[in-house]
Write a structure and sequence with these properties.
Helix content is 27%, strand content 19%. It contains 13 helices and 20 strands. A 9-stranded mixed β-sheet has the order 2-1-10-9-11-12-13-14-15, with helices on both faces. It has a 4-stranded parallel β-sheet with strand order 4-3-5-6, sandwiched between helices. The C terminus is likely disordered.
């Protein structure tokens, strides 16, 4: 795959892309021009007076206000802090309109967004900065202490949401409200997303500008089918790619509004859904169960598209939610490396307890542990395979997992992607058949259910920036 001419002056990210023979095939299912700035595209052409970013306190940013404020943020970055295209900018804060605006402003400036969760502590932030090497940090004023304690040399930190002339909210005021978004290449890196690191050192996944539109033009467009009058909300942080797509990319691509909640218990989430007329909600199965248990079914009946990911959605949870609300939960499986959901189902295609099929734009295969295609009726095999033998890495991204079918069988999901430029070496989950949620074997097309992946090595960033055990 030949890269187009980059707009990045700082070539850090492109220099650390994986070897070209490990790149996936970019599907013809979605097509984009060679020059593309995702933030400009998400905000372009929307009705200026329509609501865009909504806050829990009732504050509303229209599309015009969001566009102008992100232009001003881009000016602050480039004019006050000397940011050049390709520099990384660390973002830190809970979900709210200012965090969303900072992310969009960073992309307009041609920089690479590195969004982090506000709960991360100094040591975790230091690791992320060691890997991504940001030059500027935009941080919610309530969460600067740990960032300062991380002691990142040369990092210029700007707080937002506070008082004083140095705060970003004050810095943007004198700036003109126009800004010509940097003419980035569609395959310029737009963001670096870190895995959760629950089993070791977090890994960094790099995603292009076109990738951010591709997830909206595949999963969102064909499964969620959003409308301009929708209102989105949910609980995943924007630092998680599940939240970034579901709470920012998808609504903006559709010209809809998004309610960004800094924090909410399941009961509070249900109340916010009812009070603000939310129609699309992304959260985890645990929250859907808790909202019903809290007696909030009535508040949830206005949902058009409840979306579940992050853990297995059991048939019992799906059915309990449907019985209480009359609304069908859309389940999905995705990952940081894949950017968002790639297997899902909606409407009459939903089979409770099963995640679904590969969404339009992706291809998925169920493979036996030896890497050969599994037949729906063949006997299950053991899960001793620990390599990618037989997988055509030059054209596909591969995820390995173990699932319980009728017995313990290795499940490798290989996706011919429209989105990501990264590949990981893989090994099966060793939790045994009782630890993985399975897809049932049946005659006919395979439907992938919840699976668990553990990666051994190989991040989109060069190996010298990923020493130590792989994350996730």
């Amino acid at each position: 795959m030949r890269l187009t001419q980059s707009a990045h002056v700082d070539t850090f990210s492109r220099d650390r892309l994986p070897a070209e023979d490990h790149w996936p095939e970019f599907s013809e299912f979605v097509r984009y021009p060679g020059r593309l700035n995702a933030a400009a595209e998400l905000l372009a052409g929307q009705a200026g007076d329509r609501p865009c970013l909504l806050a829990a306190d009732g504050q509303t940013w229209t599309y015009t206000e969001a566009d102008e404020t992100t232009n001003q943020i881009a000016r602050v970055l480039t004019e006050d802090f000397g940011l050049v295209p390709g520099n990384r900018v660390l973002l830190r804060g809970p979900n709210n309109p200012w965090l969303a605006a900072c992310w969009l402003g960073v992309l307009k400036a041609g920089a690479v967004a590195v969004t982090t969760m506000s709960l991360l502590r100094a040591g975790e932030l230091a690791t992320i900065c060691e890997v991504s090497r940001p030059t500027v940090a935009l941080c919610d004023h309530r969460f600067t202490e740990d960032l300062v304690a991380a002691g990142v040399a040369g990092l210029q930190t700007v707080s937002y949401g506070g008082a004083g002339p140095e705060d970003l909210t004050a810095r943007v005021e004198p700036m003109p409200r126009n800004f010509s978004a940097v003419d980035t290449a569609a395959d310029d890196v737009a963001m670096i997303a870190f895995t959760s690191g629950t089993t070791g050192r977090p890994k960094a996944a790099m995603h292009f500008h076109r990738d951010l539109l591709a997830i909206a033009d595949t999963f969102s467009a064909h499964v969620l089918k959003p409308r301009a009058d929708d209102i989105f909300t949910g609980t995943p942080p924007l630092a998680f790619t599940y939240g970034l797509g579901g709470l920012l990319g998808f609504p903006l691509r559709a010209g809809a509004a998004t309610l960004l909640l800094e924090r909410a218990t399941p009961a509070e989430l249900a109340d916010a859904i009812a009070a603000r007329g939310v129609t699309v909600c992304s959260t985890a199965p645990t929250a859907f169960r808790a909202m019903i248990a809290a007696g909030k079914a009535e508040q949830l009946r206005g949902l058009r598209r409840p979306v579940s990911a992050g853990e297995h959605l059991s048939a019992s949870t799906w059915q309990a939610f449907y019985d209480a609300t009359g609304v069908k939960i859309i389940d999905g499986i995705g990952s940081t490396e894949m950017l968002h959901v790639f297997v899902s189902a909606a409407g009459d295609s939903i089979r409770p307890g099963s995640t679904g099929k590969a969404i339009p734009g992706y291809q998925a295969e169920v493979l036996a542990p030896d890497g050969t295609p599994a037949r729906p009726t063949e006997p299950s095999s053991s899960t001793t395979s620990t390599s990618t033998v037989g997988l055509p890495l030059e054209s596909r991204i591969c995820l390995a997992c173990t699932a319980s079918m009728d017995a313990n069988v290795g499940l490798l999901a290989c996706h011919r992607l429209p989105v990501i430029a990264s590949v990981c070496a893989i090994e099966p989950n060793r939790g045994g058949p009782g630890r993985a949620h399975g897809a049932r074997r049946r005659d006919g097309p395979a439907r992938l259910s919840r699976c668990i992946r553990r990666s051994r090595r190989g991040s989109p960033l060069a190996d010298d920036y990923n020493a130590g055990p792989a994350g996730r």
